[in-house]
Amino acid sequence: MLSSEAIKISNICCIGAGYVGGPTMAVIAKMCPDINVHVLDNNESKIKLWNSKDLNNLPVYEPGLSSLIHECRGKNLFFSTDIKKNISRSEIIFMAVNTPTKTYGSGKGMAADLTFIEKCSRQILKYSKSDKIVVEKSTLPVKTAEKIKSILGNSNTNINFEVVSNPEFLAEGSAINDLFKSDRVLIGGESTKSGISAVQTLCRIYSRWIPKEKILTTNVWSSELSKLVSNAFLAQRISSINSISALCEKTGADISEVSSAVGMDKRIGKYFLNSSVGFGGSCFKKDILNLVYLSKFYGLHEVADYWHQVVKINEYQMNRFFLTILNNLFQTVYKKNLSIFGWAFKKNTNDSRESASIYVSTNLLIEGAILNIYDPKVESSKIINDLEFALKNHGKSKIEISTIINSQIKIHNDLYESVIDSHAIAILTEWDIFKELNWKRIYKFMVKPAFVFDGRRIVDEFKLKKIGLNVFKIGS
Ligand code: NAD
Ligand code: UGA
Fold first, then answer.
1. Which residue of 314, 353, 382, 394 shows the fewest CB atoms closer than 10 Å?
2. Which of 352, 418, 347 lies closest to 385 in space, CA to CA?
3. Parallel, antiparallel, or unpaired for β 451-454 and 470-473?
4. How far is the CA of 416 from the centre of ligand 2 (A)?
5. 172, 113, 119, 124: which is closest to 13 by C-alpha?
6. Which residue, 197, 218, 239, sits at the end of a domain?
7. Which atom of ligand 1 is nearest the CA belonging to 112?
8. Peptide bond before 33: cis, by omega within 30 degrees of 0?
């Protein structure tokens, strides 16, 4: 319900110009032409890319994003590193900074690292000269708003900071569509007069394009927790179906048939039941680990163990896929050329964070394989960075890492070149182009017996087998 208490908004800013900040603010700018939207980041080169003339060069690849940027940038959408000025002039400040898993100290490997959120909060406190609505857009542990409030409460002035939780549910690859047609917009606020007014102000913005019945208002803690739980439920479905894929491979059942049969029950539903080499992306693993950590923190060890299993099954699935490749190639890939199709964690994004490709490829490199990698969108430098980081985590020294990178990795711009003298192809991202390949041509280039390991279930195995390829499809 809207009331006259909603505040008039002229300027909005968002701290964090990443995969969430960029697309989210572009959509707000498009739908609110009367509001100036400023997207801020302390990473200068990222802001330069957001401002670059070449729209193919934006830091985030998302279908539909570049045309939105083209339409709004310079009119009411601005990308800037000037955090001070834009905090000062905005009535609403979104925080869309990264909240990775902690890599050090207490809670290492589990808890969310709130360093960036704390820094943002301190910047807001420092540069604010008038009342602000501070919006948690980042995914955060339940009760974070309390911590933000305690930082913002240290003002010597009478400025009122209202902290509102408004988690983001977009998925990469379909972000623009998800933002225009959200299943729901969740806004959690306090039930004080100023809290209600802040929630209503945000509702007014979203209600310009989201039907009112899809805008859900709750208390702050329910909103913060619902985001973690949504991701946990989604990931749980993938781990559930992936666990069954292992059983299918043993019994002759087929995972696609099982998914269809199970998903036709409308209480279960058909979405998110595609078996794969394992889920990737920057959020599922970190958000579930965050949930596990929170449960342990509150002494709920059974709850923690239950959710932890979702991540463990995902690791099991990625490892199972790697072992399938190794075992089928006569237990050795040493000095064998292998082709990796796809580096992004899913199609239609240039993001490779936590991609199953990293896990599978790193293990193959350690076994001595020579990898020929092709992805239509992920930059070579990103692929190399991912592998360097993963090899370091495997305990490899700097010299060992540089030897592996120089002698065992080739990154290709041409997919057909990447299969020359290859013993096997591993399909790790479901890019549409992989569904329309000239397999006869590919087979000719390969060493025989030639293998295809399909971690995304996208090839027609009967057609490929007819050509002469040995095909392994996860879950069949
Ligand atoms: P990202 O790494 O792509 O972007 C975060 C940006 O924040 C970076 O560019 C970084 O330089 C900037 N930043 C950090 N601290 C800053 C500071 N103090 N001042 C200015 N800039 C600062 O991260 P993302 O993928 O956009 O995710 C952001 C948050 O949204 C995370 O909490 C994530 O869990 C959540 N989320 C992500 C997605 C997704 O699909 N990626 C979807 C929903 C929610
Ligand atoms: C996910 C959620 O879907 C979003 O709602 C959420 O906002 C976001 O995380 C977040 O908080 O970051 P995203 O990770 O971008 O979005 O993409 P998904 O479509 O969820 O895919 C995640 C991974 O699961 C991908 O590797 C994908 O290939 C895999 N997946 C997905 C499967 O293996 N099977 C499926 O059936 C669906």
1. 394
2. 352
3. parallel
4. 29
5. 124
6. 218
7. 32
8. no
- Residue after which a domain boundary falls, among 193, 218, 243: 218
Q: Which amino acid is at 61?
A: Y
CA-proximal residue: ligand 1, atom 32 (nearest): 138
Among all bound ligands, the one having the nearest atom to the CA of 457 is 2
| pTM higher than 0.85 | yes
Structural element, H or E, at residue 294: helix 284-297
Check which CATH number belongs to the domain holding 156 and give it.
3.40.50.720
Q: Domain limits at 391?
A: 312-473
Query: Where does 153-270 have alpha helices with state H?
Result: 175-180, 193-206, 220-251, 255-263
377-386, pLDDT tens digit by residue?
Answer: 999 999 999 9
Quote the tokens at residue 58: 């934006």
Ligand with minimal distance to 348 CA: 2
Q: Give the pLDDT confidence of 274-309 residue by residue, as tens digits.
A: 999 999 999 999 999 999 999 999 999 999 999 999
Residues 192 and 45 in one domain: yes
Distance of CA 434 from the midpoint of ligand 2 (Å) = 20
Q: Does any domain span residue 4? A: no
**Nearest residue by C-alpha to atom 34 in ligand 2:** 274
Give the Å distance between the CA of 281 and the centre of ligand 2: 7
